[in-house]
Amino acid sequence: MSRPEILFPLFAELETLDGVGPKTAQVLAALGVARPKDLLFLLPHAAVDRSRKASVRDVVPPCTVTVEVEVGGHLPPRQKGRPYRIWVRDAALEFQLVFFHARGDYLQKLLPTGARRLVSGKVELFDNIAQMVHPEHVLAPEDAAELPLFEPVYPLTAGVTQRQLAKAVGSALARAPLVPEWIDPNLIAREGWPDWRKALGEAHAPQDQAALAFTHPARQRLAYDELFAHQLTLALARAHLRRGQGVASRGTDALRRKVLAHLPYAPTTAQTRAVAEITQDMAQPLRMNRLLQGDVGSGKTLVAFLALLTAVEAGGQGVLMAPTEILARQHREGLLPLAESAGIRLEILTGRDKGAERAAKLAALADGRIHILVGTHAVFQKDVHFQDLRLAVVDEQHRFGVAQRMELGAKGQAADVLVMTATPIPRSLALASYGDMDVSVLDEKPAGRQPIKTVMISAARMDEVVGHLARAVAEGRQAYWVCPLVEESELVDYASAVERFETLRAAMGDVVGLVHGQMPVAEKDAAMARFVAGETKILVATTVIEVGVNVPNASIMVIERAEIFGLAQLHQLRGRVGRGAVQSTCLLVYQPPLSEAGERRLKVIRDTEDGFRISEEDLAIRGAGDLIGTAQSGLPRFRVADLERQSGLMAVAQSDARALLAVDPDLTSPRGNAARVLLWLLDQDRAIKLISVG
Ligand SMILES: Nc1ncnc2c1ncn2[C@@H]1O[C@H](COP(=O)(O)OP(=O)(O)OP(=O)(O)O)[C@@H](O)[C@H]1O
């Protein structure tokens, strides 16, 4: 489907806008403004009161004021480095305009003696004389209308001025067409929201401070538009995936029974429930698109494996994709005995497989001799063919976005998709990231786990930390030691893993191992393997161990410079211990002095092990944009909507979007067509391609 014609002017080149040349266009591009329409959604974040006063005498300096003046006379600097002064007089008072490093001929032109000018800027008292240093605006009285009484302030990037931006926005606004309404009329009426064009006008021309608040109807509406477009995309993706002729994979329970009998423990209630939800979904002829969300250590891997067995029981194959080589290998090690007990073949495929060995694996995969494949991204390479892929499990996919999920489904005719994430996220964010999926939650940890003892300790007491560690190692325990960065940064004195490794090794000998992101993969694996085998007792690491690493015997976690880590990250890191039956300890080592905010954050970690609570606190402290690092999280970057403060709108948008698609799956009704316009405006048009009817 092509772009609606009414939107053409908004999709023209930026240079077609007033006051935008090639240079400005480049600067705007850095702001994420590619087309005139993007300017519409670049809302002012503040505004300056430029209401006209008769005299600077009417205000109490220092303060921004806008007055009309008559230029009295110029006082060029008598010495280099001194300012250039110009006497002016408003209705009641004489004062000075002050310029540093300004050229006299330029100022003579701007403010000729005897002329009348509207000047606006900050006045302050200097030697009891009112002065305005570098007025922000100087206008001829006949141009006064150019300066609104309440001047919007746009987020700026170097290289473009407020005035240029305001002009470009104005020019884009003039192109905003009358659009059909895409929001549910009942909702509009209930909320008292303006129509789209009016909302844009009001948001860009605030008349008072209240107009800048996220609660203002114009802003609420524009935020809702954004959330609605996003949820519509997710709902379309969901409908599309489910519509893709799914295969009903009905298990026989035969393999699962064998594996469960072999396990040294019983699944938790939550695991059993999740498996039931998943297998029920797999038995449907619709394609499954499901998220398995579970806090650290809640036992997601077993759930995924039982789902994979269901695919095999139904006569098909399954694949489990991990984000890193280390994790893929760990899954293989953990699952191999279980696969053997079920009498099926499980293989691993990563970027390291080459030549004849790889070819043999691919052949075995293509004719169905391999039942379950575990691996990295390599499992989705073009030449990897399954005989009958029924289920794709993706581990730790908070690094993927909706677009990648759409691609993933394309492998195998209509494989069911199960995504595992250990990142507990608040509901509003979960809806933003995973609104296209159905969700199973593991909200229970396996029995017998002891709470982790978490303490905050100053780096000044490093000797005690090392002493504690030495005693624990002597008792046969294992520990992780996490450092923030690999190489000593020139700017910030972060502890470096390499350096820490060397000092610990000097103190404790070769029971100390090292693993960091810059190491060659083979070395990394070998270091991990030595730790898993218990050959090394202390593993100094960077955050590469953050996600998913499982060494149940490790019961101590030292995190150095804990105050600079994010809460979610600390929670993930700490989750590496407390996986066995012994009491585990987590030492949050901070560099004093600890800031108030730093202390508050570390205390959150110290006081709870509940990932969902931690994520709520994190959201409260940091804000949604930061929370999972939007760029890599797949969480869309909302331009207008504020996920923290407008989170309520997200749920409304989701049900509204699903409701619209229920009655108009192809978006062909008048409201459906209006929604298409919205999707184009907000760069969600790829969703339209998912609709069968163009
Ligand atoms: N029901 C259970 N009872 C006891 N132990 C279990 C149970 N289920 C899983 N485990 C064990 O708990 C540990 C953690 O499981 P798993 O690695 O699947 O956690 P996870 O949910 O993937 O957590 P993370 O995201 O932190 O890696 C493993 O050693 C696993 O064998």
Automatic annotation (TrEMBL):
Its EC number is 5.6.2.4. The gene is recG. Residues 281-442 form the Helicase ATP-binding domain. It catalyses: Couples ATP hydrolysis with the unwinding of duplex DNA by translocating in the 3'-5' direction; ATP + H2O = ADP + phosphate + H(+). Plays a critical role in recombination and DNA repair. Helps process Holliday junction intermediates to mature products by catalyzing branch migration. Has replication fork regression activity, unwinds stalled or blocked replication forks to make a HJ that can be resolved. Has a DNA unwinding activity characteristic of a DNA helicase with 3'-5' polarity. It comes from the Bacteria. Transmembrane segments: none annotated. Residues 481-620 form the Helicase C-terminal domain. InterPro entries: ATP-dep_DNA_helicase_RecG (IPR004609), DEAD/DEAH_box_helicase_dom (IPR011545), Helicase_ATP-bd (IPR014001), Helicase_C-like (IPR001650), NA-bd_OB-fold (IPR012340), P-loop_NTPase (IPR027417), RecG/Mfd (IPR047112), RecG_dom3_C (IPR045562). SMART domains: DEXDc (SM00487), HELICc (SM00490). Keywords: ATP-binding, DNA damage, DNA recombination, DNA repair, DNA-binding, Helicase, Hydrolase, Isomerase, Nucleotide-binding. It is an enzyme of class 5 (isomerase). Pfam families: DEAD (PF00270), Helicase_C (PF00271), RecG_dom3_C (PF19833), RecG_wedge (PF17191). Belongs to the helicase family. RecG subfamily. One of its GO terms (molecular function) is DNA helicase activity. This is ATP-dependent DNA helicase RecG.
